[in-house]
From TrEMBL:
The keyword Nucleus does not apply. This is DUF4174 domain-containing protein. It comes from the Bacteria. The lineage of its organism: Bacteria, Pseudomonadati, Bacteroidota, Cytophagia, Cytophagales. Residues 38-145 form the DUF4174 domain. The keyword Membrane does not apply. InterPro entries: DUF4174. It comes from Hymenobacter ruricola. Pfam families: DUF4174. Keywords: Signal. Coiled coil: none annotated.
């Protein structure tokens, strides 16, 4: 009888653990599509797409390193830095990237998208933060933001 009770408790614990895990998995948000991410960022954030075949690509790593020390400057300018790895994109996101943004995998691309949703600058090489910020700081919307600060 004791053995039956112990097995019942062990089985119930496993069932509860499975139910909790299933609930957590069901609640884990799925990654938004690239198009939806850009649409939801419109008028809120400037988006910097850093696109490459994979995270090991040299230009991708260099761009990430250049931006790593600039978190405050990126935040001040309302940037969302969005790493885009082609190997992880859905077919729909790949088509959107080609058609709407003009990025052609597998090449590295750095794309600055303004708060209005328009492509402001593209580069096939990593961009120094001071050049990126210089471009943004000349924009009318950014100048207005600076005056308000």
């Amino acid at each position: 009888m004791k053995r039956f009770g112990k097995n019942l408790i062990t089985g119930m614990a496993a069932l509860v653990a499975f139910a909790l895990l299933s609930t957590l998995i069901a609640q884990t948000p799925k990654a938004m599509s690239l198009e939806k991410t850009l649409r939801e960022s419109r008028w809120k954030k400037r988006v910097l797409l850093v696109a490459a075949p994979n995270a090991q690509q040299a230009d991708f790593q260099q761009q990430q390193e250049l931006l790593a020390s600039q978190k405050a400057a990126l935040a001040e300018r309302d940037f969302l830095v969005l790493p885009v790895l082609y190997e992880q994109l859905s077919a729909a996101d790949q088509q959107f990237l080609k058609r709407e943004i003009g990025v052609q995998p597998p090449a590295f691309a750095m794309v600055l998208i303004g708060k209005d949703g328009g492509v402001k600058e593209k580069s096939s090489r990593p961009m120094k933060p001071e050049n990126l910020f210089g471009t943004v700081d000349k924009m009318p919307m950014r100048r207005q933001e600076m005056r308000k600060q």
